[in-house]
Amino acid sequence: xxxxxxxxxxxxxxxxxxxxxxxxxxxxxxxxxxxxxxxxxxxxxxxxxxxxxxxxxxxxxxxxxxxxxxxxxxxxxxxxxxxxxxxxxx
Length: 90
Description:
Strand content: 5-15%
Oligomer: single chain
Radius of gyration: 18 Å
Mean pLDDT: 81
Number of strands: 2
């Protein structure tokens, strides 16, 4: 039951989501989420400042196209290990 002056639960969730988004946008590091097919699913808003590409330019693209060719095997191995750990939850 909602008391007088209380905001509905949805408002609290929206406020929390807004706060998290602002925190992510203003932190000193970039968050990039990559799926199992190497596609970029998310890049924090501050990524443009660090990398020079807008979010809409990266979302859905293969992240390996932004890696120096000689570094790709190392990145791919790391990504594969992360996926294995996630599957095994170790």
